[in-house]
Amino acid sequence: MTLVVKCRGFGCIFPSIIQIDQLEYGKTAILEDRIETCPKCGKASTYSTEDYWFQS
Ligand SMILES: [Zn+2]
Q1: How far away, in angstroms, is 37 Cα from ligand 1 center?
Q2: Cα of 3 to ligand 1 centre, how many Å?
Q3: pLDDT tens, residue by residue, 2-26
Q4: What DSSP designation does 22 have?
Q5: Taking the domains of the chain in order of start, what are their residue ranges?
Q6: 34-37 and 13-15: which strand pairing?
C-alpha cells in the first residue's frame, strides 16, 4: 500500500514523500501542514491527515 495525496493544483494523485506503515498510520499518524510537491505539475501545497489515504 502506498500513502497518496491529491494535488491541489490539478487533482493529480501522487505518492506522498511520507511512506509509513498503514497500521502505524492508523494508530498514530497526525500529519499537519506537510509540504508536498506534485511530481506531475510541480505544484507545492500543504496537506494534512484528511488529505491522505492509502492506495494499493
Ligand atoms: Zn499536480
Answers
A1: 8
A2: 16
A3: 999 999 999 999 999 988 888 777 7
A4: H
A5: 2-55
A6: unpaired
